[in-house]
Design goal:
alpha+beta; five-stranded mixed sheet; 3 helices
Length: about 110
């Protein structure tokens, strides 16, 4: 992947990157270095890193803080983003549905 990144035009930016290298390799670190050099992730972007659950991961990647991490068996997904802390979103159920709006208008 680092070689492929060098082939992209300098103006290319991504809003979201998904990193899923083989667990027993150092490709994650090599790829993160290449991504940092190219500044391919937009400032408002999100990096999703799939890795082995027992792996120790850094608190920041590409200048983004670890926002949330979830374990699924031996796999872990770590999301790095400059977003509100997950606890700030507790209780948030998403936008209102048309049915909910209709019920409000009646009641």
């Amino acid at each position: 992947l680092p070689q492929a990144l060098r082939q992209l035009p300098a103006t290319v930016q991504a809003d979201m990157l998904f990193l899923d290298p083989p667990y027993a390799s150092d490709l994650a670190e090599v790829t993160l270095v290449a991504l940092a050099e190219r500044r391919i992730l937009a400032a408002h972007g999100v990096l999703i890193w799939q890795h082995m659950a027992r792996r120790v991961i850094p608190p920041t990647v590409l200048d983004l803080p670890l926002w949330k991490s979830r374990r699924y068996g031996n796999t872990q997904l770590s999301l790095y983003a400059a977003l509100p802390a997950p606890s700030a979103l507790d209780g948030y159920e998403g936008p209102e549905t048309p049915r909910t709006l209709e019920e409000r208008e009646r009641g």
